[in-house]
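task queued by scheduler; priority normal; single chain, no ligands, no partner chains; default sampling; output format set to structure tokens
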Amino acid sequence: MPRKHSHHYLFNNQSAVWGYANCGTKICKKYLKPKSGLSIIAIIIGCSLISSTSRAETIRSAMASAYIGNPTLNAQRAATRVTDEGVPLARSGYLPKISGNADYGLSRAVYKYSGTRSTTELKPRGFGVTISQTLFDGLTTVNNVRSAKAAVKAAQQNLRNSEQNVLFDAASSYMNVLRDTSVTSYRGQNLAFLNEEVRAAKERFNVGESTRTDVAQAQASRASAVAALASARAQLKGSIAVYRQIVGHDPKNQQTAHNIDNLLPREINAALAIARREHPAILATHHLVDQASFNVKSAEGGLLPSLSVSGSASKRVDVSLAGDRNVSNSVYATLAVPIYQGGAVSAKIRQNKELLGQRRIEVDSIVDQVRAAVIFAFSQLESARHSVTSGVAQLRASRLALEGIVEERNVGQRTTLDVLTTQQSVLSAQITLAGARRDSIVAGYSLLSAIGRLDARRMKLKVAIYEPEEHYQAVKDKWFGLRTPDNR
């Protein structure tokens, strides 16, 4: 695969090599003239749209930037941490509830009896503590905790799925910019070629070696090339905007991406087996089935009796007489047997059973979606590989044809129209090959994502791997505390 900054093009049967050197914030053009000394003016447009630095950016570094800073992925991480707190919330059903109370008041009583009047003023006050502990709640808490744990596992798999999607989007946008940069460059080089053709056609017309028609044909092709270059520029700007949205910064001195064939299964059946076993979307739906099952059992606990014990201690002063003291302590057990709750518990059980059925259906749906994605990605990869092979052959043949037709035109055996038509074939082959190479790389990442293996660890990205299990372990047994594990 040739480097994108080193291409060979034919200008009036001459070979020219275009080199690129970084200079400040734009890409400088350095033209190396052929040995024949023929003066050729060529314009390379498009690469200057990308600010470059001395440090090259690879597709993996772009993915690493997206892994760290992509807001969609970071929001999913936050959502996973929110789900983690469901476990200590459910565990609170195991723990006692303690409350304290205190009161202070003023009372004034006036008594009249047989002409005698007396006034009593009191300052009733007191404080107390109440403790209650559930001993049995129909296994509701047990199943709530299991449900919360299943939700955590589902959230972690959903986070893995989001990670895959973001990394794939980063790889895809990287290749889109690389492709569109090449296409813009090709369009610019084609315009330079046509400018030279217009100049040459006018010179031949002035000496009587061509007709006005030849000049008009060259000018028409040049006008079309100007419009095509403007369209390519617009496409490149759009791709850069999407790249910035996903990766977090503009592309910088991109390097040619390579295939990841060593990470891909060679057979489609092996790919399907891996996807069925490892894809996070499938694993997440299985955990959601578990969560729904535990929710059914938790709701059924509302039909069972509950047993709790509670105790209280209090002290009061000035209750009836000034200066009196009243200290009381109590412990009691409560057994509650549900008889009829207005149908609410029964409706909740039925509702959760229907939700469980929905979750089971969703497993089948996700499995089918993943299967279709694997087959499609595998097919696209094979097709793109064939396209690259045929594109290379097409471009080679088109260049040879252009070289021969230019020679024949110079000796009067071909017309300017033949040269222009063949040059368009070369341009079309270049653009087709750029698209095929992009599709080949993207299809590889698409297949890796479809089987559930597109993640930072397997891609060996130079980042600190985010481990959702660390936050879960930090909060699952917390009894108290307002600060999050990161001290917020």
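post-processing summary
- The domain at 57-93+137-305+343-475 is CATH 1.20.1600.10 (Outer membrane efflux proteins (OEP)).
- Residues 1-54 have pLDDT under 50 and may be disordered.
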